Amino acid sequence: MNNSEKYSIRILDLKNGSHQFKFSISDDFFDDFKGSEIKKAEIKIELTLEKNERAVRIETQLTGTINTICDRCSDKFDCPVELNEILIAEFGNANSDLSDADEKIIIARDAVILNLKKHFFDYINMSLPVRRVHNEDQNGNSLCNKEMLDRLENINKIPEASKISDPRWDELKKLLN
Ligand SMILES: [Zn+2]
Hints:
This protein has helices at residues 117-127, 146-161, 167-176; strands spanning 8-10, 17-25, 41-51, 55-69, 76-92, 104-108, 113-115. The chain is α+β, with helices and mostly antiparallel strands. Strand 4 and strand 5 (76-92) form a beta hairpin. Residues 70, 72-73, 75, 133-134, 144-145 line the site of zinc ion.
């Protein structure tokens, strides 16, 4: 089974009614998305498909973690994510472009498989919060990497540390004292 088939559903074989599917996504999923900002993730996807004569309603529930960079300490961490999205796939004469995270797509009436790989990729990207920071422990202490924070603080301090004595400031200091 190649990576694409792994994230496909044999839509033609499905009877009308409700169906459940489960998918696990880990690091190898991102191998086919070369420019992907996300390289490491552990994601569980649960699909609920409702098929009728005219369309398939696909509800995607996504939970897991994405390895990303903390906005505060710049260290990598596993950011918890979740997302719930609904996609309507209407039966038509030909497949529409599946490259967008659209809410509605057209699939050919005689299509054998529905490949959801690109949709999953879009959903995973959508699930990342705008602000990504380490959580806090039970005592409310940040789980940020202290060493990294100290280092960042030192970088910000460099102009001050390298400050050489300026006679004008020395005069001013005398006035202030
Ligand atoms: Zn952090």
